[in-house]
Amino acid sequence: MTPSLDRRGLTYGFAAYFIWGLFPILMAWLEPAGALEIVAWRSVSSLAVCLMIVPFMAGAWPRIVAVARDGRTMLRLTAASLLIAVNWGVMVYAVVTDRVASTSLGYYINPLLTVALGVFFLRERLRPMQLVAIGVAAVAVTVVAVDMGGLPWISLVLATSFGLYSFIKKDVGAKVDALTGLTVETAIQLPLAIGVLIWVHASGTQTLLVRGAEGLGWVHDTLLLTTGTWTAGALLIFAAAARRLPLNISGLLQYIAPTMTFALAVWYFHEPMPSARWAGFALVWVALVLITVDSWRARASAAVTPPGRVTEPV
Q1: Mean pLDDT, range 268-283, rounded to an integer
Q2: 238 HSE (CA, 13 A, CB side)
Q3: Into how many domains does the chain fold?
Q4: In the list 12, 43, 90, 287, which could disulfide-bond 189, CB 3.0-4.6 Å?
Q5: Between these two residues, 210 and 39, which has the higher pLDDT value?
Q6: Range of lowest pLDDT (76-80, 144-148, 245-249)
Q7: How does 65-76 read in b/e, with b if 16+ C-beta sit within 10 Å?
Q8: Residue 310 lies in a domain
Q9: Which domain holds residue 238?
Q10: Other CB atoms closer than 10 Å to residue 7's CB: what's the count?
């Protein structure tokens, strides 16, 4: 990997996570649109963006057709599509109900949950520091739950849905590139999205093309119709970064978005942050430091081949 590719990869990585970190502001700008309307248009416009890009990507259509004919892969992508739709919906709901800090906590917890999923599904063995990190994270969730008077369900649903989504995407990663995956997933979501938009219109809660006391206008309509541009753009930029960056750097960059979201929750949205909640976040940060250090050590150890170890197939 050349230095120029390193710099480009870092730029792409920062850009992708920076866009994701700004999502709460974009969602807030879409008020008074409800979470269902926003998520439905996000799905529709993401598919539209993908379909505009596909003709310019060599071999894109054959890859999409090949995936569509593979029942096993389609089953996995259908599950991934539903999981990411739930993730989007809960995230938007959290923003429009002034719970942005909960989204930050959810995405902070996600790397720790990914480790737990590896244990549950792949029967991976936890290293001591991983076990400590998960224990600290469990204490953090308990502290936040006591402070809130109940489980932080938004954080847990976000972490679980995105963790399972990432797990499935990793499973099909060798067959499905980022553009193909997003195109197929949003196409799967399309019937549901159209149904939601019909229901929103019938219930009288539609905000697109509505004029009146709310003062909605073309800016609102444009933002609502182009939410998919942010989604598709960030994902494709991230895919370009992932091809150029080592996993340890990508692992560190993933904390940019929840850190930005946390800062926005405190200093932009001015959400209340009692001492107990600060303590919960502090414990999560400790857990993330532990899991990151452990990951770096594990990769460094794997890079060193012990004397006498066979390194090629025999």
Answers
A1: 93
A2: 22
A3: 1
A4: 43
A5: 39
A6: 245-249
A7: eebeeeeebbeb
A8: no
A9: 3-299
A10: 11
Alpha helices in the chain (DSSP H): 3-29, 35-53, 60-69, 71-96, 100-122, 128-148, 153-172, 178-202, 218-225, 227-244, 247-253, 256-267, 275-303
Question: Does a structural domain hold residue 312?
Answer: no
On the question of pLDDT at 286 being above 80, the answer is yes
305 domain-assigned: no
**Residue 253 confidence (pLDDT) above 90:** no
- How many of the other CB atoms lie within 10 Å of CB of 235? 18
User: CB atoms < 10 A from the CB of 313, how many?
Assistant: 4
Residues present in the chain in total: 314
C-beta of residue 73 within 8 angstroms of C-beta of residue 67: yes
The Cα–Cα gap between 82 and 87 comes to 9
φ/ψ (deg, to 5) at 89: -60, -45
End-to-end Cα separation, the chain, in angstroms: 28
Per-residue confidence at 135, pLDDT binned at 50, 70, 90? Answer: very high
In the predicted model, what is the mean pLDDT of the chain? 87
53 domain-assigned? yes
CA distance 169 to 153: 24
